[in-house]
């Protein structure tokens, strides 16, 4: 495993993390015992940075990771989130950023996780009716109380990040970023770089699409990707061009498409001047090993140019509601 990466606010994590949402029923049913074995394998392989949220599986994902922490808390940097009411699969019914809710949410998460401190606590989404300064002030109180070590924000705009950073150091922004989701590079990434904030890309493999293994036409009824415009039949067909570009580079390097997609993000971080720690999620233990192979991959300038051209041709929004993510509020 490559050396640890320092995000903002002196938070050191493994160079790849693990996104826990894959171990909830958003892509189909999950075997909890097998999911726990997957988490243990990730730690064995050198992954120390684990990401979950109170809303994943109605709290069951935090409980699952709590089972890992019982045995391996000292080997894990733990990130979780507050703010969403509802579920990824069934839909969200509310966004709560108020101080009273935050105080309740952190205690519920600590109880489910079975730990006394959260290493990185994110605001999951913005409620535009609550000033972000008030939200971060409430989050900062949790640091003072010893319940949280570092603060993070998900899907914020550059202006929101700047306002938040004036209240308390922000360790990381977590937003979707990949070869086919590059809108954050316009404003959010430069702001994070200027402020010394790390970036944690979620869905770095395009919710699986960039691996070339996802048939958008055959997604199950309970697969929430059915609601994302770029997975609609016409858009998904057009977006096979970016998959072909990723696969072509992978073939040149004797690598896999997933490794190329992750390596591209790591290069982008270096090019744009900020620490980047992707958090791919998977249910399969061999995929963890495959993903870690990206750390040793070198992409040539010509390969980077080819991937950049392909990314420019992506069709369809990354969210059914553009204001749900930073892209729609910039």
TrEMBL record:
Cellular compartments per GO CC: cytoplasm
Pfam families (UniProt xref): Aldo_ket_red
UniProt KW Disulfide bond keyword: no
Keyword match Calcium: no
GO molecular function, one term: oxidoreductase activity
Key words, A-Z: Oxidoreductase
Protein name: Oxidoreductase, aryl-alcohol dehydrogenase like protein
């Amino acid at each position: 495993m490559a050396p640890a990466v320092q995000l903002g606010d002196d938070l050191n994590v493994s160079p790849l993390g693990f996104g826990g949402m894959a171990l909830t029923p958003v892509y189909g049913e999950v075997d909890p015992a097998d999911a726990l074995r997957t988490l243990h394998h990730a730690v064995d392989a050198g992954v120390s940075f684990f990401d979950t949220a109170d809303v994943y599986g109605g709290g069951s994902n935090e409980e699952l990771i709590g089972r890992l922490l019982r045995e391996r808390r000292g080997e894990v940097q733990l990130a979780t989130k507050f703010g969403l009411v509802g579920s990824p699969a069934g839909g969200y019914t509310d966004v709560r950023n108020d101080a009273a809710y935050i105080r309740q949410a952190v205690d519920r998460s600590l109880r489910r996780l079975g730990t006394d401190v959260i290493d990185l606590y994110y605001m999951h989404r913005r409620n535009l009716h609550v000033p972000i300064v008030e939200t971060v002030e409430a989050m900062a109180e949790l640091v003072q109380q010893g319940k949280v070590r570092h603060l993070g924000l998900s899907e914020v705009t550059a202006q929101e990040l700047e306002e938040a950073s004036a209240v308390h150091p922000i360790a990381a922004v977590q937003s979707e970023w990949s070869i086919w989701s590059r809108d954050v590079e316009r404003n959010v990434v430069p702001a994070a770089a200027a402020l010394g904030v790390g970036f944690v890309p979620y869905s770095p493999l395009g919710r699986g699409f960039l691996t070339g293994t996802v048939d958008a036409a055959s997604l199950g009824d309970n697969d929430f990707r059915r609601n994302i415009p770029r997975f609609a039949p016409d858009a998904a067909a057009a977006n096979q061009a970016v998959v072909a570009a990723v696969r072509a580079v992978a073939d040149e390097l004797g690598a896999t498409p997933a490794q190329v997609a992750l390596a591209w993000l790591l290069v982008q971080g270096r090019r744009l001047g900020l620490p980047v720690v992707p958090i791919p999620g998977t249910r399969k233990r061999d995929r963890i090993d495959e993903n870690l192979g990206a750390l040793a991959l070198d992409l040539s300038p010509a390969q980077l140019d080819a991937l950049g051209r392909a990314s420019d041709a992506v069709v369809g929004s990354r969210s059914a509601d553009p204001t749900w993510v930073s892209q729609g509020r910039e």
